[in-house]
Structures are given as structure tokens and as C-alpha cells.
Amino acid sequence: MKTEAEIIRALQTAASLTPSLTVTQYQRWSQNRDVPTFADILSVYGTWMNALKASGLLEVRRYESKDMIQALRLASAEEGKLTSAQYRHWASGRSVPSVGDIITHFGSWSLAVKAVERLEEEHFTVQPAKDKAEIVQALYEAYRVLTPFNAITYQKWAKRFNKPSVAKVSRRFGSWKRALCELGIHEMTDQK
After folding, report:
1. Looking at residue 183, what DSSP letter applies?
2. Where would a tag sit more exposed on the chain, N or C end, judged by fewer CB atoms within 10 A?
3. Measured between alpha carbons, how far is 58 from 39 in angstroms, rounded to an integer?
4. Is 37 helix (H, G, I), strand (E, B) or coil?
């Protein structure tokens, strides 16, 4: 188990390499390093956002989801298909959410752009980063308590405790297996 000081130092070091530190970026950075794992961070702070706050890496949000979507739509209308670099240039000198604000809220730049593109479709609703955080926390919690841990046992547990379903996990990550792979969780079979 890593100490809070080790966690904060690792988060601050990883964050110095990127404008907004996401779970995925931290996991990539931490591979093959003797630093706290994402699971260590969750066990100490409970949530990724709490860890970022404790490390001084999370600014108080000045913008709501609607403000970010509005800024992305306006930038896209003026600039065409947006990269984060194009948005950063467009946003310079304007009172709009930063690239970091947008990435923190949506989870990644590509998810933010996709969310705005899909909002044009009639029946789409945005799944902000907090939905992903809820899924991540549920998966880690289930992984700690379920034996064996797999899609079947998780689904029963999720229904009982009103947690995100296997289908929701699959939609958010692309598949059940991709979610587990991204989080470093392995399915277990019954050891009888």
C-alpha cells in the first residue's frame, strides 16, 4: 500500500506532462514504474476526483456542461473539425472553458467532440466523465468483493446494489473485456 505522500507525488509528476490528467493517462504513465496504481489511489481517496483535489490538481470548475458544449459548437462552426490544439488556439483570449476543463469533464478530447457531434442526433444524451467514474468505481468495488469475478456475477451484484449494468459498462468502454483491460482487472473463474 502506497502512502498519501507517494500518491500525491506520483499524481503531480504525471500531471506535469499533460494539461489535464485523466485515469487512462495516469495508467499509461505509471506502467513499469514503482508508483501507486490506480487501485492504490482509489483505496486511499475513494474517487479519482478526490485524489486530484488532494494533490492540488483539480481546479474549481467555472463551467457547466452546457457551457462546454456551447464553446465546442461555436469553435467547430468557426474552425471546422476540431483538434485540441485548434480549440486551444481558438479559445486563446476568450472567456471559454479550457481544453483541460473539457477533458476533465468528458474524460478525453475525443469523447467531448463525439458528444457534441452526437448531440445533433435526436435521441442522444451526453454521458459525462462522472458516469465513467461511477462505472470505474463499481467495477473496482465488485472486483474486491466478488468471487469469482466475471460478467455474470457482476451483473447480479450490480442489479442488487443498483450499480451500472454490464451493458452500460460495454457501451461506455466499447466492450466488457475492453473495460477490464483498461482498468487492469482480470475475470476469474470459479476455483472449485
Report:
1. H
2. C
3. 19
4. coil
